[in-house]
Amino acid sequence: MTLHDTKNLRKQVAPFEKSTTKESVIQIFNTVVPFIALWYIAYLSLSVSYWLALVPMVIAAGFLTRIFIIFHDCTHYSFFKSRRANRILGTCMGVLTLHPFDQWGHDHSVHHATSGNLDKRGTGDIWTLTVEEYIAAPLRTRLAYRFYRNPLVMFGLGPIYVFLLKNRFNRKGARTKERNNTYLTNVIIVALIALLCLAIGWQSFLAVQGTIFMISGAAGIWLFYVQHTFEDSYFEHDKEWEYVLAAVEGSSFYKLPKVLQWLTGNIGFHHVHHLSPRVPNYKLEEVHKNTTPLQHVPTISLATSLRSLRFRLWDEKAKNFVTFKDIKAVVKKRISVQAKPEL
């Protein structure tokens, strides 16, 4: 893709970078209201059986994922025309999803500005090492990386660590406005939990919200992971890195069934979102269908996306992700050479 092509592509997308108040309001109602209703139905179902309550819990987790997409759009100031409206709604949705508006918005903006840049990793992204970095790393780093990349850790412990713990604390260097927003979010979360525990009991609250949280949290991390971790992704060093290429080649089109596409707020059109974060989620599919170059980006389905669980390291030479097994022989050879005494 030439420089002219990239500029032309951004021009084609520009007309869609406007929110529609009516569509935004409708999305709030068709997302938040069903979530609250399903939460209450799940609570009532507990008196019969946890397994019966699990049905509305799973569906509610889907709606909580959709709530997160609204929050996500607000942090990009793309859900409403008014910045203040985005901040207010985003902070409210952040309470439901356990994400401070300003803190997460900052890290996510860095992610957009550096995604696929090998020299600017570490903020708002998933820990990714190159093959050479992994081979050269000390044993403790390799073990930590393997632990981090284990699916049970990433999708099981990951939501607990990131959403419940990490999000409760301000990042180093955060400004007063951002710090205060984190404090406000934490206070409202604690107050809401206390009220619900007083109203229905902590056991019922934990059973319902805990289940919904774990399902939606795992789904959220999976969506973020799979849309940047596919075989032929995009990673370059800063001198060669290009924003548009990182967007359309380093972000996948996750082709989901219509029901899941709706529940995930069209985030499967991740290449469109990374190309232009100002496009609201309800216009992402429209952009994809009306912009020919965007229809020829890396595409994955539910079935093919499962392969990404095997991809652990980025091979700079081959320009693709590889498994730990792929480099096992290389690592053994390197360790063997290092262990030999010099003559």
By helix and strand content, what is the structural category? mainly alpha
Extract low-pLDDT stretches. Answer: none
Q: What is the gyration radius calculated from CA atoms?
A: 21 Å
Approximate shape: globular
Query: Tell me about the biggest sheet?
Result: 3 strands, mixed
Enumerate how many helices there are, as a single number. Answer: 16
What string gives the helices and strands in order?
HHHHHEHHHHHHEHHHEHEEH
* Strand coverage percent: under 5%
First-residue to last-residue Cα separation: 51 Å
Helix percent reads 55-70%
Record field, number of beta strands: 5
Whole-number mean pLDDT: 93
Give the strand order of the largest sheet, numbering strands 1, 2, ... along the chain.
Answer: 1-4-5
